[in-house]
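Hey, can you fold this one?
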Amino acid sequence: MLAKTASCVAPHKSQQEANMFPVEVSIFDEDTLVETMETMRTWLDHQRFEPAFFRYKLGAKLVVLRVDFAIETEASAFAKAFSGKVVV
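Sure. Predicted structure:
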């Protein structure tokens, strides 16, 4: 008989996403989005950080960038540098 196992991962998250440290940064001026993303990329390259995922969500009054890191200290440093927050 096969044993059943339970996962602590939420059904909508992959195992890889569950092991990430996501950071959300809100951009309130859509006109600065490209410049902000270029600044982030330059900062990430300078720090030699490689995020696993980089995505965004468009809202009515803001853009929320979500950057997922495999390393918690990298996530914290990125959040601090760009006035973001590490989300659970």
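Helices lie at 15-18, 33-47, 72-81. Let me know if you want another pass with a different chain boundary.
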